[in-house]
Design brief:
metal-binding, EF-hand domain-containing protein, 6% strand, calcium ion binding
Length: 412
């Protein structure tokens, strides 16, 4: 009897393919040498950039990495603890995504994901040190607003599972790590339109400030109804505030909305998601956002009843303005011809993600102003800045308007 032993090569590496052992040991030796030169084998925050360079990670991983181990009474990193942390991490995290998650969770192997609050130190470091945000240093009251905006934008784009937890797999599929790397190469923060643009933050925050009349950082249904000159239908606003696309402000709270004197209230973070979804309905998260809102019974399908429910209010609004309207049956035929659902008579999320005309579909049912724009626009006309997303185009236009308004106010 013959036994054949086959050495199977391993092809699946959930935390990245392990580098050669010599690479890890070389880094460890270099780190030991750096700590040897520091008083008490400790590294202060001011000197920590040297450690970051030895670890060969992007510059703006700096503060999360600094906070990874318990600091000494002097507020410095203990060399022995850091070396232990680094060896532990590199023993099973072998690519940038898995290492970033491990660092952001402070080495908690029971938590292989990133929470929103984990980003606070990283983004505050960007505020404090990026040359493109030098003007913001004196305006400390805007720091937390900027930080929360960037975090909301990161989760809107990266957290495709809507869990409020960014996994390693989601991180790998996103461009977030590339954008964080770009921060140390690009001095103009507004050129980094993904997540960090100050101009984008300014547009979002000004839009929220206009609606938040009592400036408590929450808005209610009446406030949101004023957005874009009452463009959204009341039925859609009710759905947004129903909790289908909003998050609980407190863990363990079964009611996803804070209650105010006029009913439920929306947080600033939820408004960031709303505005991103409203101004770029072709984005995958936006398609899911509005589908959740229109799927009133939550069965995963937009029935003809649900479409009629939303279109009915659109019809009434157009009639009150003296605008000729299509009967629902004719509108439905147009929409189904456009979407071409796989199953006749019902529209699924997959149908809408496959269709290139999804923004027109959504605006037809709940955004009167944009519906009228679609009706008047030449579908074959070339759009300005065609390489930009709808969101980037909107943010650029709104920023110019806001700056022009401020200039006029100053002169006045």
């Amino acid at each position: 009897m013959f036994f054949v032993f086959v050495n199977f090569l391993r092809f699946h590496f959930p935390n990245g393919k392990p580098p050669p052992t010599i690479t890890t040991e070389t880094t460890m030796q270099r780190l030991e040498q750096v700590f040897d030169k520091m008083p008490n084998y400790e590294c202060t925050r001011d000197n920590f950039q040297v450690i970051v360079q030895m670890c060969q990670v992007p510059q703006y991983w700096r503060l999360p990495l600094f906070m990874c181990t318990q600091l000494t009474p002097n507020g410095a990193v203990d060399g022995d603890k850091f070396l232990h942390f680094w060896r532990q991490m590199t023993s099973f995290c072998h690519d940038a995504a898995s290492r970033f998650v491990f660092i952001m969770s402070r080495g908690d192997r029971t938590r292989p994901y990133i929470l929103p609050e984990d980003f606070a130190h990283l983004i505050q470091d960007v505020v404090d040190t990026h040359p493109g945000l030098a003007f913001l240093k004196e305006a400390a009251e805007f720091h937390s607003r900027y930080v929360h905006t960037v975090i909301a934008r990161i989760f809107y784009n990266v957290n495709r599972s809507w869990t409020g937890k960014i996994t390693t797999a989601e991180l790998r599929k996103s461009n977030l790590l590339d954008v964080i790397q770009l921060l140390e190469e690009e001095e103009d923060i507004n050129q980094i339109m993904a997540y960090f643009s100050y101009e984008h933050f300014y547009v979002i925050y000004c839009k929220f400030w206009e609606l938040d009349r009592d400036h408590d950082l929450y808005i209610d249904q009446q406030d949101l109804a004023r957005h874009n000159d009452h463009a959204l239908s009341s039925r859609m606003i009710e759905r947004i505030f129903s909790g289908c696309v909003t998050r609980s402000p407190r863990r363990g709270n079964n009611n996803p909305m804070i209650q105010g004197p006029n009913g439920p209230k929306m947080s600033y973070t939820d408004f960031v998601w709303f505005l991103l979804a409203e101004e770029d309905k072709s984005h995958p998260t936006a398609i899911e956002y509005w589908f959740r809102c229109m799927d009133v019974d939550g069965d995963g399908v937009l029935s003809m009843y649900e479409l009629e429910y939303f279109y009915e209010e659109q019809q009434h609004r157009m009639e009150s303005l003296g605008i000729e309207t299509l009967p629902f049956e004719d509108c439905l035929c147009q929409m189904l011809d456009m979407i071409k659902p796989a199953t006749p008579g019902c529209v699924t999320l997959a149908d809408l993600k496959r269709c290139k005309m999804t923004p027109i579909f959504y605006d037809t049912f709940f955004n009167l102003e944009k519906y009228m724009e679609h009706e008047q626009r030449d579908p074959f006309a070339q759009r300005e800045n065609d390489d930009l997303s709808d969101w980037d185009r909107y943010a650029a236009q709104e920023y110019e308007l806001l700056v022009a308004e401020e200039g006029g106010d100053t002169q006045g």
